[in-house]
Amino acid sequence: MVANRPTCADICWQKLLVDWVKANSDGTVCGSDSLAIAGGVIRDDQGGWIYGCARHIGRCYVLMAELWATHDILLAAWNLGFRRIQFETDNLEVAQILQGRSDALIGCSLVDTIRLLLTRSWSVNICHISRMQNMVVDRVVALCRDSLSSSMVFDSVPAALVRKEVVSF
């Protein structure tokens, strides 16, 4: 049996309306020590790099790492002055929590903080995407995992991503 190969629609950049930015987040938990990393990327309506970040967040489980990544990239988007955001995550539970379609982590202060952030005067569309579509931010998180730095900020595309041919504009 041959597996279905992903199509361009499954993994290619989808253009946005003018004046919108796309913010992607990803969180991961590494190895038996459960050390977690959260990261995110912001790109303009044409796919051009604006901002990327990643940081070690200590020990936690994957859903919390994903939520910290969501918090960090949405806060960065706000602080950078963006008010029209297409937010994308490859974690279905995070998307459902933010859309109010999941009761997971009710009363969690991090979820409450993110929800409060979403009530600010801006438009944030929340979308669940495939892991393949989130590959750029996945690689940003991996750069932090492989680094001795506790946090990293990228004002331009990291050279390691270009070499891996992950960034497609």
TrEMBL record:
Pfam families: RVT_3 (PF13456). Residues 24-142 form the RNase H type-1 domain. This is RNase H type-1 domain-containing protein. It comes from Hibiscus sabdariffa (roselle).
